Amino acid sequence: MIPMEYYLTVSTLMFFIGVFGFISRKNLLAVLISIELILNSVEINFSIFNRYLYPDHMEGMFFSLFGIAISAAESAVAIAVIINIYRTTQNIDVRQINKMKN
Amino acid sequence: MAFTLFILLIPLCVFLLLALSGKRLSAGVTGVIGTLGMAVVAGLSCFSAYRYFFVIGQSGGNFPALVPFSFEWLRFTDTLSIDLGILLDPISVMMLTVISTVSLTVHLYSVGYMRGEQGFQRYCAFLSLFTFSMLGLVMATNIFQMYVFWELVGLSSYLLIGFYYTKPAAVAASKKAFIVTRFADLGFLIGILLLSYCTGTFDFGELTANNGLLVIGSTTGMAFLGLSAASWALALIFIGGAGKSAMFPLHVWLPDAMEGPTPVSALIHAATMVVAGVFLVARMFPVYYFAAHDVLMLIGYVGAFTALFAAVVAVTQTDIKRVLAYSTISQIAYMMTALGVSGFSGPDGLGYTSSMFHLFTHAFFKALLFLGAGAVIRAVHSNEMSRMGGLRKHLPVTHVAFLVACLAIAGIPPLSGFFSKDQILDAAFHHDKVLFVALWLVAGLTAFYMFRLYYNIFWGKERTYEHKPREASWTMLVPLGILVVLTAVTGFFPFSKFISSDDMGYAAGINRGVAASGVAVALIGILAARMLYRKENDRPAQLAARMGGFYRAAVEKFYIDEVWMFVTKKVIINCVARPLAWFDRHVIDGVLVDGTGRLTEKIAGSIKGMQSGQVQYYALVFIAGALAVAVWAIYI
Predict the structure, then answer these.
(1) Which of B97, B318, B365, B424 is least surrounded by CB atoms within 10 angstroms?
(2) 3-state DSSP call for residue B605?
């Protein structure tokens, strides 16, 4: 069996890659993808902890499923927002989007 | 006697009603409400005096001090609290009748005198406020309640002096009155605090009980600069009284206060408020007599000096209201002197009785003089004596009323002034010959300047007036009539039976020798005035020229105003106010207020860059913070 630390290393790497992307990317879509990476790393953690520490329970797995559903909904909303921003400003650079009203 | 509460509540309600409704009520309705309210109060006051003196009467030899109503208002410590209540004893009941009667006549008179004035509603409201405060002052059960109402009468006096607020002189006079009396009240307040600190009570009953035993007992061993704590406290309280009662050198506000409407001068600045200081000393009399006899002597000398000083100034003034103002100062000083020379208990307390008696009679004849002067001013549209003359044909009723009042203040029997003045002279004669001579001289001067006024107004040169002077309306003449009757008859009132220093009552007679000398000097004064002023001639001018510098000094009121101006403008402003203003501007404002602002601005300027609106930057800071917390949690 693959040790738990391997999985955790992967999820930690994914998490910080996501964080780095969230902070450093200027394109809104890239920021959104970074957020998805963060969420996925968290879901991996849920599943792994569930599988290794409490094999008799299923809460972690279900929580991951909820997380996937919510991140799907979140991406849908975020992409809708991004499209609307693009329509009004012709731009999806986060540094340029600093006005409440255009 | 709980109905006496209404004596206070009715003027208060009238004030609130008139002040809140303002110009929505017509002037006529306002006058009716004010006068009717005051009539009810006067009726209640006379009824309570009747009940107090004749139905309840003496029990165990003296008139009891009743407290029909009292409640605790503010509690400081377990033993010290400020109460509000109603105290009925001989002098407060006597003051009730005086205040409410004079106030009633003045209200009625004002309806005629103030006809067509702008702001009559405001005037009536303030008059009711004043009456309420003055009644509260005399019925106060404790010295702190008295202080509260004391400030209220000061306020209403200020408001009424400044009634013609478009006139700069009236505004200046009202400010002067307020500031001078307020300055004196500072002494009063410190005195109250000192006294209550020693005795642990504000209550008049406890302070004066057992001949001021509490005050003497609690202040033994405490002394400062050679005077006992009791003397200091009572002298400071007297300063408050001296400010209100216009004793030298705090008298400067009263002549200027004549800028107010004439009925106001009659009510506040002649009959009631200015005697508050006398009333205060009378209220605390046992304490003054037993615990601080040195202060009582000081009161006597201050009073005698003020009486003489004001009488001399009154002789030279030409504005008729100013003559009356200085006459008021002189007469109040008479009352103060009488208190100063008084002994205690029985006939020895003649000074106390005569002081209250003179307060009582003076209120009526001085109000009559002012209201008569008001009728004259209304008729000729001027305050200046030089613009009057020969008015006896034009104003016959006012002439008679004024003559009666002049005779009364000069002390001619059988008018009321004779009886009270004779008693004061008698008391002074038995106590201190120097004070007696001073008061005796003042009696002559009083007769002289009053008849100088009288002859100049009603006799003297016949003048042609732009408008023919007309007699006033009935609303002004009826109050004159009431006051003439009161001036004529109150002297026969057996005053000493009811009001005496120990509340026991005794029978005071007339000392024939003193009375004869008093009347003689008054007659000399009247005859001198008659010779000089009955027909216009150049004798007064010659006499004035012969007096030279002294006369000029008296015309300029002995430069007391200038001295005060020097003290305030040069000394106080330069030595105290300017450094304080500098401190305020540069330290309080500059360092503390502006400094705080500038510091905040600087810090804000240096950290405002952090709030860039960039979410990614926020996230970076957030994550850095979270990592720092994590590191801290793991390794430390």
Answers:
(1) B318
(2) helix
Coil, helix or strand for B284?
Answer: coil
Residues of A within 8 A of B623 (CB-CB) are 19, 23
* Per-residue pLDDT at A66: 93
Integer angstrom CA distances of residue B365 from B56, B259, B471: 30, 21, 20
How far lies B203's CA from each of B8, B59, B215, B225, B233, in Å? 20, 22, 12, 28, 15
Contact A19 B615 (CB under 8 A): no
Task: Say if CB B107 and CB B127 are below 8 A apart.
Answer: yes
**DSSP helix/strand/coil, B212:** helix
Q: Which residue has the tokens 């208002």?
A: B73
How many whole angstroms separate alpha carbon B620 and alpha carbon B626?
10
Domain that holds residue A42: 4-89
Question: Do the domain assignments include residue A84?
Answer: yes
- In angstroms, the separation between the Cα of residue A51 and the nearest Cα of chain B is 26
Q: How many domains does chain A have?
A: 1
Tens-place pLDDT, residues B46-79: 999 888 888 887 777 778 888 888 888 888 777 7
What span, in angstroms and rounded, lies between the C-alpha atoms of B490 and B482? 12
Whose CA is closest to B484, among B545, B403, B426?
A: B403
Q: Does residue A98 sit at the B interface (CB-CB below 8 Å)?
A: yes
**Whole-angstrom Cα Rg for chain A:** 17
Rounded to the nearest 10 degrees, the angle between the axes of helix B120-138 and helix B143-161 is 160
Domain annotation covers residue A102:
no
Whether residue A94 is contained in a domain is answered as no
A30 in contact with chain B, both atoms CB, cutoff 8 A: no
The backbone torsions φ and ψ at residue B589, rounded to the nearest 5 degrees and listed phi first, read -75, -50
Which tokens in the block code for residue B186?
């500072």
What lies within 8 Å, CB to CB, of A33 at 6+ separation is A21
Residues of B with CB under 8 A from a CB of A: 613-616, 619-620, 623
Q: Is beta strand B223-224 parallel, antiparallel or unpaired with respect to B81-88?
A: unpaired
Answer whether B616 sits within 8 Å of A98, measured CB to CB: no
pLDDT tens digits for range B473-515 = 888 888 899 999 988 888 888 887 888 887 777 777 777 888 8
Residues B391-400 have pLDDT tens digits of 888 888 888 9
Name the residue type at position A38.
Answer: I
**Domain containing residue A33: CATH number:** 1.10.287.3510
In sign, the C-alpha dihedral spanning B442, B327, B155, B259 is: negative
Q: Is B74 helix (H, G, I), strand (E, B) or coil?
A: strand
According to DSSP, residue B570 is labeled I
Flag whether pLDDT at A102 surpasses 60. no
Residue B599: other Cβ atoms inside 10 A: 10
What's the rounded Cα separation, in Å, for the pair B176 and B258?
Answer: 12
Q: Give yes or no for A99 touching B (CB within 8 A).
A: no
A34: in domain: yes
pTM given for the model: 0.79
What pLDDT is stored for residue B632 in this prediction? 93
Q: Which two tokens stand for residue B303?
A: 């009073």
**Residue B631 CB-half CA count within 13 A:** 6
Question: Rounded to whole angstroms, how far apart are CA atoms B300 and B308?
Answer: 12
Burial of B616 (0-12, 13-18, 19+ CB in 10 A): middle
Please count the other Cβ atoms lying within 10 Å of the Cβ belonging to residue A9: 11
**CA B60 to each of CA B56, B57, B283, B357: distance values in angstroms, whole numbers, following the listed order:** 12, 10, 21, 24
> B197, exposed or middle or buried, with CB in 10 Å at 0-12, 13-18, 19+?
middle
Peptide bond into B249 cis (omega under 30): yes
